[in-house]
Structures are given as C-alpha cells and as structure tokens.
Amino acid sequence: MTTDTTAPAPTGSLTGVPADGPAAAGTGRIRLDFAKSAPKVFRALVGFDAAAREGLDPALVELVQIRSSHLNHCAYCLHMHTNDARKAGECEDRLHMVAVWREARHFFSEKEQAALALTEAVTLVADGGVPDDVYAQAAAHFDQTELANLLALIFAINTWNRLALSTAKVAGTDERRR
C-alpha cells in the first residue's frame, strides 16, 4: 500500500509554495505554507521588516535586499526585489551592477557602497564576522537610528531569503500581489 504524501497546493499571501505549486525539490511533496502554519511568527516578521525600513531611502532598501538575495542565491527574493526596484524608478544599469558593485562603484554613492559592504559582511557573517572597517564606514554614513534600521533590514532580508529557500518558493510567483 502506498500513502500519498502530497499535500494540496497552498494559496494566499506569501505562502510556502505558489498556488499552482511545483513539488519541493523534485520530491513530489509540496512544502508547508509558512504564513498559515506559523501565522504569529509570519506577522511578526512582516512587522519587523516594515519597522526596519522606516527612515531608510526606499532605493537603498531595494539595493540591500537585492545584494543579500544574490549572496543567498534566493531567486524568489531577487526577482521580487528587482521588480520592486524597477517600479520605484531604479534604472536597469544599477540593477545589473549590484552583484559587482565593487567593480562598478561609480554607479553607487558612498553611502550605498557602505550599505552594500555591510550587507555582505552581515549576510556572510560566518565567514569572518563584520570587520571593524566595514562597520565604521557604515557608521560614517548613517546616524545611529538609520544604522540600527539598516542592520535590522539586513537581518530581515536574510530571514526572508531563508524562508523562501526552505519552503522552495519559485521565482516569478510574487504572492504578495494575489
């Protein structure tokens, strides 16, 4: 006797899998709908994300989210945030250069470069922590409240990346718009 372990495809905002839902990593099983399975945690994360953005330039927010998503190999979030950046008026040239910003510094202000460097250090924290010079450069461009919010934003996008990767979210299925 075979037991079918395939769950019905979830629906709703920021679910674990799109409504037309692919199987998770070729297993034939749909991964959980995080928003429905842990609604209090999910709402807390949404609130944390919203609070982190306060006082930060929306273009900078998207650049940070894009860079973290590159580093974490999160296609779902990368697709979402590049689209959000375009809608907010970000130019294609800068979007193409985020992954190689160190080689294309002239596309980004010193403040944006400091934020991108901090994003890399925090996202890759296990590779050597956050170097003092990277932190000092960010602190030179952001006041204490902005710096705290920038750090919180980096924490939030890293959490969203991990949530999307763990629940096998598919790029191009931005469920916020459903």
Describe the protein's architecture and organization.
The radius of gyration is 18 Å and the shape is globular. Helix 3 runs antiparallel to helix 4 (75-87). The chain contains 8 helices and no strands. It has helices at residues 34-37, 39-53, 58-71, 75-87, 92-97, 110-123, 132-141, 144-166. The longest helix has 23 residues, at 144-166.
Summed up, the helix count is: 8
Which range best describes the helical content: under 10%, 10-25%, 25-40%, 40-55%, 55-70% or over 70%?
55-70%
Taking the sheet with the most strands, its summary is: none
Shape estimate: globular
Global structural class:
mainly alpha
What is the helix/strand order?
A: HHHHHHHH
Q: Give the integer mean of the pLDDT values.
A: 85
Strand content: under 5%
- Please state the CA-atom Rg, rounded to the nearest Å: 18 Å
Beta strands, count: 0
**What distance lies between the first and last C-alpha atoms, to the nearest angstrom?**
38 Å
Low-confidence stretches: 1-25
